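Collaborator request log, item 7. Partner lab (contact: R.S.) asked for a structural prediction of DUF1837 domain-containing protein to inform their binding assays.
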Amino acid sequence: MNHPEQFLSLVVHEIDAAGDDLALCAGFERGVWRRDQLANHVMEWLPEFALNYSELEEIGHYNAIRMTKKAAKIVYQSEKYGLRGEFGEIFLHIAIRQVYKTLPAVSKIYYKSSANETVKGFDAVHVVKGRDGLELWIGETKFYNDITRAIYDVCKEIVDHLATDYLRTEFILIQNKIDPEWPEAESLKKLLSSNVSLDQVFKKACIPILLTYDSQAVEGSSESNSDYLNCLKAEVAIAYKNLREKLGAQYRDKFGSDLPVTVHVILIPLKDKKELISAMDTRLKALQL
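Returned to partner:
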C-alpha cells in the first residue's frame, strides 16, 4: 500500500528486546520550526487514516477531492478540536506506517456514530505481515504538551487495556469493523478469535505508544544541528526511561508479572502544541468547503 512521501526525520532509534525507542522530528527551515509544513503533511494522510479499505481502493482522479473532503469531515466534526485525540491518532498512524511499514487494519474513526463521540479502545489497529503470519499492532497515543502528564495517562490506559476482559471485548469490536474486502481480513479475524489463547496473540502483538509534547530542545533551537540533536536525545532519553519504568511497575502491581507484549515508544517533540492544532484546524476547515 502506497503512502505519502516521508516528512518526519527519524532522529532517534534505539532497538532493544523490550521494544524500540524512537523520536521523530519535523525539523526547521530558515530558522523556524516546520509547523506549517507538518500540518500540510498531516492533511496528505487524511484519506488513508479516515477511510476504510474499500473506499481507498475506489479513489481515482475523478473523485480524489471528494474523498479527501469526506475524510476531513470524519476527522473534524467538533469545534472542541483542542480537547480531542484525533490528531494524536493521525500522528501514530503516520509514525508506524513510515517507520515499520504497517498495514492499517481498521480505521476506527470511520465508525464514529456521532460528531462528539470519542472513539474508544486502542488508538490504532494495524498489522505487519511476517514469515509466521500477521503481527498485531495495537497502539496508544497522547497528543499532549506536557510529557510527564502524557506518560502518566498513557501508562494507566495501557494497563487497563491489557486486562483480559477488556481485550476480549475489544477484539470482538475490531473483528466486526474489519472491511471484508481487505486482503488480510480473514487472517486477522482468526488471530483475534476467542478460541485463540491470549498467550498466542501476545507472541504476535506489540503496542506502539506515541506521545507528543512541547519540547525545550525544539524551543531553544533554530536548526537541526548537532547541538539540537544532542539536546533532544538527552531530553527524550529521560522520557523513555520514565515511561518504561512506570509502565512496567504498574503492570506488575496489577497482574503480578512482566509486560507480555513488546512496547515501542515513539516521541514527537513539538515547539507549541496549540499553534500546531491551530494550523491543522485551519487546513481541515478549508478541506470541508
